[in-house]
Design goal:
Layout lengths: L1 E3 L1 H7 L2 H16 L9 H14 L3 H10 L1 H7 L10 H13 L6 H11 L2 E3 L4 E8 L18 E5 L2 E12 L6 E8 L8 H6 L3
Parallel strand pairs: 1-2
Antiparallel strand pairs: 3-5, 4-5, 5-6
Helix pairs in contact: 2-3, 3-7, 4-5, 4-6
């Protein structure tokens, strides 16, 4: 199975078909009256993120505000309002009411599995420091230290070098993605790149 990041998931999942299915079910349940005034595909993607990252409704809203990768995945522009937790909750409850019993995450997983893909659920991120020589002054008085490397402090010790940011499966069995930075870059700054498969 090939693991997918958010960018690729966005491209291969038939979101429009899922939206059409929901609208047909809704018309049958409500007689075509009172269609939702919200973007169904965006809410579907919110529920997918919720299932993938195991987030509560308020946490989905918070993560959408904080993470550019989530905003891009859902398709929210700077001018648009972030769906609030109440809207997300109501939408999920409505899906159950019209007979869309399966969670969006489970349904999306099934669609992807039919294509030979799987989703990065329950991933673990870790940063490993790769030390570089600190150098010394040569006979010309110049320091031979690697100028591209940076310093950082971990567990009371100073390091000079680079950092490998590694995403593994939940049990640590498989490396799913990596990015490389200088040592001073915090692990949190690479979360979006690792989740999107940009490494």
């Amino acid at each position: 199975m090939k693991y997918l990041g958010l960018k690729k998931i966005n491209k291969v999942v038939p979101w429009k078909e899922m939206e059409t299915d929901i609208l047909i079910r809704r018309d049958k349940s409500y007689g075509g009256v009172g269609r939702p005034n919200m973007d169904i595909i965006k809410l579907l993607k919110c529920l997918f993120l919720q299932g993938m990252c195991q987030l509560s409704d308020p946490e989905v809203e918070d993560q959408l505000r904080d993470r550019m990768s989530f905003q891009k995945f859902v398709g929210i522009s700077k001018e648009e309002d972030i769906p609030d937790d109440t809207t997300i909750c109501k939408f999920r409850n409505e899906l159950v009411e019209i007979g869309f019993q399966e969670s969006i995450f489970t349904k999306t997983q099934y669609i992807l599995s039919q294509m030979g893909f799987t989703v990065k659920e329950g991933h673990i991120q870790d940063g490993t420091i790769i030390e570089a020589p600190r150098g010394k002054k040569n006979k010309y008085g110049e320091n031979t230290r690697d100028k591209d490397a940076t310093f950082t402090k971990k567990n009371g010790r100073n390091y000079h070098g680079y950092k490998a940011h590694i995403e593994t499966s939940e049990k640590g069995d498989f490396i799913m993605n990596t990015t490389y930075t200088t040592a001073s870059v915090h692990d949190s700054q690479q979360q979006d790149a690792l989740m999107n498969g940009d490494g």
